Amino acid sequence: MPTFQTVRGMRDLLNEEAETLTYIISKAREIAVLYGYKEVITPVVEPFELLSAKSGEEIRQRMFIFKDLGDRNVALRPEFTASIARLATTSLKNEPKPLRLFSVGSVYRYDEPQRGRYREFWQSNFELLGSSRPEADAEIVLLTNSLMETLGLQGYAFKIGHIGVIRGILSQENVDEKTQNAILQRMDKKEYEEAFKLAPSDKCRSMLEGLLQLKSDDCFETVEKIKSYVAGYEKAKAAAENLGDVLKLIVESGCPVETVEPAFARGLEYYTGMIFEVYIPQLDIALGGGGRYDRLIEVFGGESTPAVGDAHGIDRIALAMQMQKTILATKRGKRVLVLSVNDSLKVEALKVAQMLRDAGIIVEFEVMGRKMAKALEDADKRKVDYAVIVGERELKEGAVMLRNLAKREQTIVPIKELVEKIKS
Ligand code: HAM
Question: In the CATH hierarchy, which fold is given to the domain comprising 335-423?
Fold first, then answer.
């Protein structure tokens, strides 16, 4: 047999990598609890039609699609939002609003593998359903801010825009939705020339080109510039006003907004309002992003439900933490190896191990049948803190031997006092 490798774009995450990933997930889950989001677990495999309905060409072309043995067209989820919208039209249809939902798990996109871009990656995903108000948009940005802050990331900043500005111009210029999507897709990739070529008139083209020039260093000034630039376009103007309202809430709550981008577009097609991404200076790819999507649930046959949400790229956040040498704020407890001096004391040793675990101490039990010296040497190498040695003589006195592996010191400790002694 050949030795097997992972499939291209798929990775094994070992040791620190796995530890960092689960650490970020635990922090995202803490944020979910703090902001009142309930966790939902949805399938990795979903109907292709559901996942492709409003995701946009970019993602549609990068999905892992296959037929299951029942001849159904299915795909591996490239994100969570479609699954959440499905839930909102089925099991959670009658839930009172607002509905706050959190998910975390692996997602799949056939992207070209490179640093920070994988074919299997992890997202923590937040969706807030039922509110069209700016405070709902602000909440999604602010919880992302809380996550970045909790993780200790330095210099991160938000880029914000509003898809309604561009769509407002395009609709009023009678550009059909398909062409609008094609234009936005290219603008998302910053292929502006290609995008503007698709504009059906010179006026439409110059309006789009002009958007690129509006950016200023001050976020609020940019919003004012957009407002006056689109003065003749009613929907675009309302969008710019809405952007200003959201911006005020997040900036005044202390969220670091670096830029307001008038020509900002995102790869996903379902957005209808405010959109954003978060970055650190050392990486030119987004650590997370999201926005408002007020029509998706309706498209899936549900009641018209305003919604806003975002997803954090956990693998990229891990990469960012590694680049910034962020220390994981985990309080790892003491690690203990429990072993018996001979086989007849194994049951007693297991009982001691269980007692320690019940007290929250991390315990490894010696399962290799190694001689005492060898087992202790191995534990020391693996940075285990203590060995608890269960021997006949001590046990008769209700005690065990406690060995501090780093200091190479050992004392006899009554079993009753063992937990306290290890924890102190
Ligand atoms: P997205 O921008 O496509 O949004 O993905 C969110 C995050 O996932 C990105 O900012 C990035 O950190 C990470 N990501 C994307 N592609 C890759 C990749 N190939 N490798 C590693 N990380 C990646 C969404 O998925 C939307 N569903 C967010 C949302 C929720 N909008 C509304 N609700």
Answer: Rossmann fold (3.40.50)
Bridge partners, 260 (sequence order): 160
Question: How far is ligand 1, taken at its centre, from the CA of residue 170, in Å?
Answer: 26
- Tell me how many helices (H) and strands (E) the chain has: 17, 16
pLDDT means over runs of 10, the chain (424 residues): 93 95 97 98 97 88 97 98 97 97 98 96 98 98 98 97 98 96 95 95 96 93 97 97 98 96 94 98 96 96 97 98 88 90 96 96 95 95 96 97 96 97 93
CATH architecture of 15-323: 2-Layer Sandwich (3.30)
Task: Give CA separation, 351 vs 335, 345, 356, 417, in Å.
Answer: 17, 10, 9, 15
Which two three-digit tokens encode residue 349?
Answer: 């040793």
Cβ–ligand 1 contact at 235 (below 6 Å): no
d(CA 109, ligand 1 centre) in Å:
10
* Atom in ligand 1 nearest the alpha carbon of residue 80: 27
Q: Where are the domains of the chain?
A: 15-323, 335-423
Domains 15-323 and 335-423 fall in the same CATH topology: no
Q: What is the value of pTM for the model shown?
A: 0.93
